[in-house]
Write a structure and sequence with these properties.
Layout lengths: L17 H9 L10 E4 L4 E3 L13 E4 L2 H6 L3 E2 L13 H4 L3 H10 L2 H14 L3 H12 L3 H19 L4 H7 L5 H12 L3 H7 L11 E6 L7 H10 L6 E4 L2 E7 L4 E8 L4 E7 L5 H12 L5 H9 L5 H6 L11 H10 L5 H15 L1 E2 L9 E2 L3 H5 L10 H16 L10 H10 L5 H10 L12 H10 L5 H7 L7 H9 L12
Parallel strand pairs: 2-4
Antiparallel strand pairs: 1-2, 1-3, 5-9, 6-7, 7-8, 8-9, 10-11
Helix pairs in contact: 4-5, 4-7, 7-8, 7-9, 7-10, 15-18, 15-20, 19-20
């Protein structure tokens, strides 16, 4: 591709509505941060739409669908608005096509660990097909997108730690110090040492390998059901609520970690302790996914508010997110353990598995003791040792066997419709179990639970149909956001999942 010049920059490959983009920039509308990026032809700088500086003249603006596309076209990141640190596009979470699945894998660090061939193998397409589709929609291929992500991770480490630059380079995923230096200079127009010199001097104290950062989101965000659900269902030893923060252990590609997530007015506070700093990008991505931070709450609430029966619920607590997971296999196991039992009983069953088969780890703050056992560990467990009814024991052993041998894939690249169908083929899996896994593990924003007791009670209270078939028909108007409608329906109950712990 011809190299960009200051006179004739390459245009965005996917046409963006110029009029709406210009209006968003001139009004500094933060709702569009992450949806697109503004590149200024005169300064060769790219910004987020809400950049606080005086907006450039409209004729000097051009627009790109990704930070990687801006960098590929020769623009550098604005030092004021830090466009590379915006929330991610909500498109990649709610869409199920090849581009969205590829973006979820890139965010999970697959290109850094396995290269483009590994990305292609996971998606079942050729590397050339993936490259072509990403270029067409995002203006950058998988290598450029991964490079942009590495640059953001590098800046985070440069600005928030005192690590030597060589350690920063390899922790961020760069193959050499020279590539790291060149990339940082190109993207931020500063050498790594200069970037550190500009950062605030005070850095949060903590143990080795611990980082403190902010996770941005699109407002509004209602933390009640989000953190309430995670706290109320927390598995002892793996999760806990402490001092206003949700804490849990993480299994990561190079090691393990412990994260503490605290809801704040303008961001989610995040403190991560890692056994290997190379896992930072993946850990951040999984925490964002857990809390559904890349959602577009304005679009969701606008759709649901159109139903006069749901509108009062939306108005009373806008910005509800769907609590998801950091480990899809773990959640599937917990969904089976939670079949037809109370929340407390499900936690007890899961805690027994963790104590018996989870990998122990040290928590400097105490409270967390294990990683949740992975499918391989659970597949090796003798069924007779599982203290649960025989039918549920058979369901669990079949599930972990399918996860361990790879016949069932619940990863971020999984085809949601196909995976749901495969779940329903497993013994003991009905619509509720398959749909709750689709909603929270597969991240399907349109997953719906018409047979859920809490949903049916809420529907009856609101005057909606209470039978599953009739309620499903009524919920057609809520597409493609029925998983969010479930959160609003659940919120009518006094269950602890709907409230932040005291």
């Amino acid at each position: 591709m011809r190299k960009a010049t200051t006179d004739t920059p390459p245009q965005p490959p996917a046409p963006l509505d110029r009029e709406h983009c210009v209006h968003a920039v001139q009004s500094k509308d933060a709702r569009f941060d992450g949806w697109f990026f503004t590149a200024v032809l005169t300064t060769r700088i790219y910004c987020r739409p809400s950049c606080p500086v005086v907006p450039p003249k409209a004729e000097n603006m051009t627009f790109y669908p990704s930070a990687a596309a801006c960098q590929r076209a020769g623009f550098r990141a604005c030092k004021r608005c830090r466009p590379d640190a915006t929330p991610g596009s909500p498109e990649w979470n709610h869409r199920a096509d090849l581009v969205a699945r590829a973006m979820r894998l890139i965010a999970d660090g697959v290109v850094d660990r396995e290269g483009v061939p590994g990305l292609a193998a996971r998606l079942g397409y050729s590397a050339r097909q993936i490259e072509r589709q990403l270029l067409a929609e995002l203006g950058a291929g998988p290598l450029s997108l991964a490079r942009a992500q590495r640059a953001q991770t590098a800046r985070l480490l440069i600005e928030t730690t005192a690590l030597p630059m060589a350690e920063v380079a390899f922790a961020a995923g760069f193959s050499s110090i020279r590539t790291f230096n060149d990339t940082v200079r190109e993207v931020f127009a500063l050498a790594p040492t200069d970037l550190r010199a500009r950062a605030p001097r005070a850095r949060a104290a903590g143990t080795a390998g611990t980082l403190t950062l902010r996770l941005p989101f699109r407002a509004p965000l209602n933390p009640s059901n989000l953190f309430g659900h995670l706290a109320a269902t927390a598995v002892p030893g793996v999760e806990e609520w402490r001092d206003g923060a949700y804490r849990r252990t993480l299994r990561l590609p190079y090691g393990h970690g412990i994260v503490a997530l605290t809801p704040e007015a303008t961001h989610v506070g995040c403190r991560i302790g890692l056994s290997d700093l190379r896992d930072l990008t993946v850990a951040i991505s999984r925490c964002r996914r857990l809390l559904d931070l890349d959602a577009d709450p304005v679009a969701v609430d606008e759709r649901l508010r159109a139903d006069p029966l749901l509108a009062p619920l939306v108005d009373a607590g806008p910005g509800r997110r769907v609590p998801r997971t950091v480990d899809e296999a773990e959640f599937a196991v917990r969904a089976v353990l939670g079949q037809q039992v109370s929340t407390a009983a499900a936690r007890t069953h899961a805690a027994r598995l963790v104590t018996a088969h989870g990998k122990p780890l040290d928590d400097p703050e105490g409270g967390l003791t294990h990683l949740f056992p992975d499918p391989d560990a659970l597949a090796a467990v003798g069924p007779g040792t599982l203290a649960m009814p025989r039918s549920r024991r058979a369901t669990l052993t079949t599930l972990v066997g399918a996860l361990a041998d790879g016949t069932l894939n619940l990863g971020v690249e999984a085809d949601r419709a196909e995976t749901r169908a495969r779940l329903l083929e497993l013994p003991g899996f009905g619509p509720w179990t398959a749909d709750v896994i689709a909603m929270r593990a597969l991240g399907d924003p349109d997953a719906f639970l018409p047979t859920d007791l809490g949903v049916r009670r809420a529907a009856e209270t609101l005057g909606l149909p209470a039978t599953p078939a009739a309620l499903t028909a009524c919920a057609e108007a809520w597409r493609p956001w029925r998983a969010y409608a479930v959160q609003y329906l659940w919120a009518t109950d006094s269950h602890p999942i709907n409230f932040l712990p005291a």
